[in-house]
Amino acid sequence: MVNGRPTPDLSLRPTDFTAWEGPLWRIVRTSGDRVRPWWEPRTYGPLRTMRWDPQVPPPRDQPARAVLYAASDLVGAVAEAWHATRRIDVHSDDPVIVSFMPEPLRLLDLTAQGRFLIRTRLDAGVVGGPRASCRRLASSVLTVDPAVEGLLVPSARSGVNVVLFAAGAAKVGRRATLIHRADDPTAVRLLSAIADELGYAI
Predict the structure, then answer these.
(1) Which helix or strand (DSSP H or E) is residue 160 part of?
(2) What's the pTM?
(3) What is the pLDDT along the chain (202 residues), one digit of tens a residue?
């Protein structure tokens, strides 16, 4: 269901998907409430604050509909991690910068370059519209095919984001190519430059 309307004709074709074989980035909190390892998807949901949660309401633990959000570059990860306040906070909850290389992924392409939205006659604006509509679309996709590994989605702030479902999260592994404390002086200099680029404070 999207925009409050059922989508019984929702179907997936091989041409709707794109390959992802590059690195992914996350900003991960390492202290505070509900801390999880950087590679572990979230099974509880859907959460109203998250755009692409595939869980079925009401919110509850749904391991088969786990989700893990990542960005295609560090700028995107920073933009997403601190978009609510537009202030990069390198101290609260001890954030770390994580880059990792998953196994090759097959993602449903929801960007302007993909064919899925056009073929299914879904308004391209749905990906930037109400979060509830995006969550319904993600849930519908996973209902149609529980083996879908994830989504390639445009970021409202920078580049593209990757939303991994349970099948895609299983390809992440537990070995990062980079884990760096955000409050390290070297990281702070880099984050300061990104803050200036995004118009964020730090």
Answers:
(1) strand 160-165
(2) 0.93
(3) 455 444 546 899 999 999 999 999 999 999 998 899 999 999 999 999 999 999 999 999 999 999 999 999 999 999 999 999 999 999 999 999 999 999 999 999 999 888 998 888 887 778 888 999 999 999 999 999 999 999 999 986 668 999 999 999 999 999 999 999 999 999 999 999 999 999 999 9
Rounded CA-CA distance 191/182 in Å is 8
95-113 in b/e burial notation, b at 16+ Cβ within 10 A?
Answer: bbbbbbebeebbbbbbbee
Q: SS3 for 124? A: helix
On whether the CB atoms of residues 182 and 74 are closer than 8 A, the answer is no
* Cα–Cα–Cα angle for 152, 157, 161, rounded to 5 degrees: 20
